[in-house]
Amino acid sequence: MAFRGLAPFGALGRALSHRDARIFFGASLTSWTGLWVHQIAVAWLAWEMTKSAVWVGMVAFCDLAPAVIFSPIAGAVADRMDRVKLTMASQAVIALEAAAIGALLLTGHLSIGLLLALEMCKGTAASFSQPARQSLMPGLVPRADLPAAVACNSLCYNVARFVGPAIAGPLIATAGVAPAVFLNSLAYLAATLTMPSLRVDAAQRRGAPSGVSVWADTIAGFRYAGRHPGIGPLLAFAAIASVLMRGVQEILPPFVERLFARGADGLAMLTACIGIGALFSGLWVASRGKLEGAVALSVGAVACQAIFTIGFVSTGFFPFALLCAALMGAAGSVHGISTQTLVQNAADPSMRGRVLSLWGMIVRACPASGALALGAAGEIFGLRWPTIAAMLVALLVFAWGWSRKPVMVAELETRG
User: Fold this and answer.
1) What is the pLDDT of residues 88-126, one digit of tens each?
2) Which of 62, 96, 209, 263 is a Cys-bridge partner for 119, taking CB atoms 3.0 to 4.6 Å apart?
3) Measured between alpha carbons, how far is 34 from 326 in angstroms, rounded to an integer?
4) CB 148 within 8 A of CB 289
5) What's the CA angle centered on 413, arms 411 and 416, to 5 degrees?
6) Whose CA is closest to 114, among 17, 65, 45, 183?
7) Residue 203 to residues 17, 197, 355, Cα–Cα distance (Å)
């Protein structure tokens, strides 16, 4: 039954008017808040342990890089088994990983090598969780509300990007890293325990085995996305842009200390500003509740994010950097929500898990590659000039994406 109080929020209110959607998004907000607390904590821990931008980049890489290997396989698995059970199992592993980091840190047995190995385990589990969980959304809301639901899902992520740092900064400053990672463990445990209460239609909950191997299904997913005249170019565009631009956000601690001479408080402020920008732009995109214009938003947001990132690294004035960070977050949110909405809508239901796994690979593995490359270049040339060079290349990528816009509009915005 719809909640009358949600009516003023338009499309967003329609998505949240469904019981299962509210449970789903509430759990998402809880787990992602814990995730952002965790990511800030381990990035700061790596920086404190090594004082090296390369090692901070390696921590991000070990968390995100498993998506290259496992995300496509995970998508094929999600298309052939119970997605609720797969989500529960993978989220439980993430909760255990965070608890292990906290326990090793408290007992003095955590080394940078162990931290990298544990983050690799977490990244592998997240690779399976993402396509399984996201594939459930069409079973939670009517098809007409799916664009708003996808936007709401991304909005939850960006709200968490604001709330998580707001919790992480003071918590790490007053109590240390261990309580922060334990908080993430509890958040993922809570999200896991909500999954059995979802009433998902059987056809959306369980994929259908195709009669061939998981590897063959994985290859079929790549072929489907690559041959699709709309999904293929859009995912390629998003992947290249993500490598070039998202690395900055993955290795913020060196930027905080080297460019602005700040500590954990500065890191929390910057990450919170990114989240605030993402929150407000996400609310706007979610309230649109339509596909028309989504391709232009997805492509144009990349140019905006590149320009704002140049502003961020070109200044030593911290208040201006906070403003640029908020605008970077806003542009990134518009791009992410628009891209995921288009891909989710256009994908054939039998391929949804595999296509979403490719999107998951892009948003996880590509930033990891960018973070590692930027961290290495930052040790040699400093952080400022390699970042500016990457943003200038991103603007060229935007020009290519804009040239493909008419074809993508025809293939992605007109399919109901």
Assistant:
1) 999 999 999 999 999 999 999 999 999 999 999 998 998
2) 62
3) 21
4) yes
5) 95
6) 45
7) 22, 17, 18
